[in-house]
Amino acid sequence: MRPILMKGHERPLTFLRYNRDGDLLFSCAKDHTPNVWYADNGDRLGTYRGHNGAVWTCDVSRDSTRLITGSADQTAKLWDVQTGQELFTFRFDAPARSVEFSIGDGLAVITTDNFMDNVPTAQVKRITDDPDDQSEESLLVITGIKGRINRAVWGPLNRTIITAGEDATVRIWDTETGKCLKESDKEQGHQKAISSLSKSADWSHFLTGSLDKTAKLWDTRTMTLIKTYVTERPVNAVDISPLLDHVVIGGGQDAMNVTMTDRRAGKFEAKFFHKILQEEIGGVKGHFGPINALAFNPDGRSFSSGGEDGYVRLHHFDSDYFNIKI
Amino acid sequence: MALEISMEGIEARARDLGVDLTAVDLDAVALPAGEDFGIISDDEEILRDDDPMELEMGFANIVVVDNLPVVPPEKFDKLENVVRKIYSQIGVIKEGGLWMPVNPDTKKTYGYCFIEYNTPQEAELAREKTNGYKLDKSHIFAVNMFDDFDKYMKVPDEWMPAEIKPYTAGENLQKWLTDEKARDQFVIRAGTVTEVYWNDARQKMPELVFQKQYWTDSYIQWSPLGTYLATVHRQGSQVWGGDDKFERLMRFAHPQVKLIDFSPGEKFLVTYSSHEPNNPRDTHRVVLNIFDVRTGKVMRDFKGSADEFTASGNISVSGVSWPIFRWGGGKDDKYFARLGKNIISVYETETFSLLDKKSLKIENVVDFCWSPTDPIIALFVPELGGGNQPARVSLVQIPGKEELRQKNLFSVSDCKLYWQNSGEYLAVQVDRYTKTKKSTYTGFELFRIKERDIPIEVLELDNKNDKIIAFAWEPKGHRFAVIHGDGPKPDISFYTMRTANNINRVSKLTTLKSKQANALFWSPGGRFIVFAGLKGFNGQLEFYNVDELETMATGEHFMATDIMWDPTGRYLASAVTSVHEMENGFQIWSFSGKQLYKVSKDHFYQFLWRPRPPSLLTAEKEDDISKNLRRYSKKYEQEDQDAFNQLSEQERKRRKQLQEEWEGWVSKWKQLHEEERAYRMELRDGEASDEEEEYEAKEVEVEEIVDVNEEVVAFELDQE
Lengths: 326, 720
Hints:
The structure holds 2 protein chains of 2 kinds.
Chain A: E1 4-6, E2 13-18, E3 24-29, E4 35-38, E5 44-47, E6 55-60, E7 66-71, E8 75-80, E9 86-91, E10 96-101, E11 107-112, E12 121-126, E13 138-142, E14 149-154, E15 160-165, E16 170-174, E17 180-183, E18 194-199, E19 205-210, E20 214-219, E21 225-230, E22 235-240, E23 246-251, H1 255-258, H2 263-266, E24 270-274, E25 280-284, E26 291-296, E27 302-307, E28 312-316
Antiparallel strand pairs in A: 1-28, 2-3, 3-4, 4-5, 6-7, 7-8, 8-9, 10-11, 11-12, 12-13, 14-15, 15-16, 16-17, 18-19, 19-20, 20-21, 22-23, 23-24, 24-25, 26-27, 27-28
Chain B: H1 7-17, H2 44-49, H3 52-56, E1 62-66, H4 73-88, E2 93-99, E3 113-117, H5 120-130, E4 134-136, E5 139-140, E6 142-145, H6 146-153, E7 185-190, E8 193-200, E9 205-213, E10 220-222, E11 229-232, E12 236-241, E13 247-253, E14 259-262, E15 268-275, E16 285-292, E17 298-305, H7 306-309, E18 326-328, E19 335-340, E20 343-348, E21 353-354, E22 360-361, E23 367-370, E24 376-381, E25 391-397, E26 403-409, E27 412-419, E28 425-433, E29 440-448, E30 456-460, E31 468-473, E32 479-484, E33 491-496, E34 507-512, E35 519-522, E36 528-533, E37 540-545, E38 550-556, E39 562-565, E40 571-576, E41 585-590, E42 595-600, E43 604-609, H8 619-627, H9 629-675, H10 677-683
Antiparallel strand pairs in B: 1-3, 1-6, 2-3, 4-5, 7-8, 7-43, 8-9, 10-11, 11-12, 12-13, 14-15, 15-16, 16-17, 18-19, 19-20, 20-21, 20-22, 23-24, 24-25, 25-26, 27-28, 28-29, 29-30, 31-32, 32-33, 33-34, 35-36, 36-37, 37-38, 39-40, 40-41, 41-42
């Protein structure tokens, strides 16, 4: 499995996202310019210029026409995927950490950090078809969480929003009332900040990765903890394979301590686990910094990883991968 | 930060807030878990931590000096000055801390005085140093601690027969040896938790025996025969043992104890502490206690300045070379000795006094060690007078103190002594200067202790300029291994003290070239050895069979810091302790180098196999067993197979169960997904939902005009 190295960012990667068709890959990094790549050969198609700070996340609409990005410059922006044109800017008082379109792309959930005196929030905005009608008004603002919200995603049928963040707790919120419906168990749940959250293809379950060196699989509707995957390093990124019963978990020693030891010591590997048996299948090495972002292609036949080292590595699985037996 | 809240304050505040205090059940108010608002709780845990010295009394820093001259008022000042002079040399006397009472009738002093120091340590020192001090012929000081008076007053005047407690049967302290599966135990310390496990190699995981948080304040140690587990606390040391519950067997009070050491037969425990001096110019004060492990009695204590106990350049990082007392004479715990300036003091444990009431006088001795089995001391004296007096190594028999053998050595820079564990051989590694004195080279002097007249052989390596990195005797055997060489990949050589035709000459077996190793670990049973590249070498391991002279396996435990064989030589543990921040944990290997299991623990401090006492079988019986090994092994092979089958059966069941569980989830999700289909379509404006959505690929040709440019092109027709 020879990876394709994609060098388009000057700073550490923060997020990777495939579009629904799996032919485009969007990458965000701490430099200010998200990129879009051909998911097949790794050629760069274009960039989205306009942000003035690190870009934390992005999401692309189902028809691959709209891109939304959240940035440390305290804005979230809507883009025309094809032209790279900036369509609209949502302004906040704090960095926008996480963004996601709802089913139908009529809504988006955007989280803002606890910054200066602001409490962290998750806000729901209406996304209009015509950018001229777009407003900054929030339909719903969720507050009451201590510590940064690292990820907020929609639950089934847009009825719930799932948040996870620094307080190590996963919560499910009602999008009608803004009330917290469920909270992950303190004992069972993560012990340290949750860094990432990724949903299965049908949104029935989701995987969270945490600095406590574990990743946990939850039921989206009931918040039942289904599985726990234990690794040796803080987890920064997770994803669930849409094709096989596999999950991929990435991370590594935090960047601060990286230079102190051998590259092998950092364990900057994307580790594959069997989703059901919770056993490690294998690992993909290559980054020389922690892995910050992971994404499976929607066809499950390739995946890409983004590292602190500023590279995106695109891996097409060998045929062996599909025949792994344990 | 202590909050002081008075009841009035609370009532006033309650009135302000309009709260009816009578309606509040104050007892029902509890702090949230993990929150103490900065108020220290008076839990047992913290009380326990308090120094008992300070709890017990307030007068520990006062001494009473008796047998002073009785003087009239005109001489009072003079006497007071003399006393002050004597006692302020020892420590700082508190302001107004010297009180000499005067008889109101005669106006003369009573002949005693009280001196108050800042600390109990100073007072203790003053008592020690000046008790028996001769001021003049008729005035010999009798100095006592003020607190002791109470103690002596409490002694009843009449003798009372001691109460005899009924005998209670003790626990079987050897119970762990009777494990049906013949497993070995080990203890680990990670974070604040100390845990004892069985090494269950068949199940490929450890089985927990006992676990306790905050079991020790600094470290833990097994006794040499594995009977006791010792913990170290601020107040002293404790030993634990018995069956699986690890009950406390004995406490040994020794405030601020730093280091402990068992005698080889685990009859005695030596504890050590060192105390900061009050006067920064002074050296640390050192206190050593020797306890009887079973009765808990102090058999002997040693006190003094740190200098006395760290004689002749043996000062290591912590200021002492531990153990200070080295035990000799095998498992009988008969003698212990310590190195002093130009002396070796040998004590015997019958009376805990110096053997023959005097130390062994040896000019300039810098190092010594006991034979592991016999009461023989090997000692080393370096060169004196710029080489006029050669360095020497000699063997001294105890208790006779006669010299058994001596060897003079020339141009020696350093010397190390290695005993073979059954006391048959002694290897002396000698670093000598070359003629120019600019570099050194190394040779070995090999003593055959058990042979008549103790013959000595000299061994030089093939390349005598090689640096010696490690040396190790084969336990119970007659071979040794040496890692030698410069540069990152040294060589490893094996030598034997016996040759085939029984001529006792040392000969080389083999040399292995270019190994990534810096440490040698023989199996306790001999024959097998592991070369390890620890620390800088990233934890390379090579398992080697010395009988066959072949490598059995190689492995790696990345960043390993420690390697330990279990006492039977069946398993090997490699560990990464918290000298690194990462990779902490341990791995268990079979003797042949198969990795069995791996456990990760953050903040991993210690891994210790529980030692076993020596086998009770006679040598003949052991030989008999090894001859008929096949017969015995059948039974165990069967057991192994059964365990393996059971394990794979369990594993299959587990997987099946997990798979079924998962399928349960999936079918539930499918159903819900189906139910929600209509809603989803609605949310997507009627667009067909999910996978089944049809889309056709249209090829659209788009022509785009990039630029339109008009340019006038002038033709010069003339030129045509």
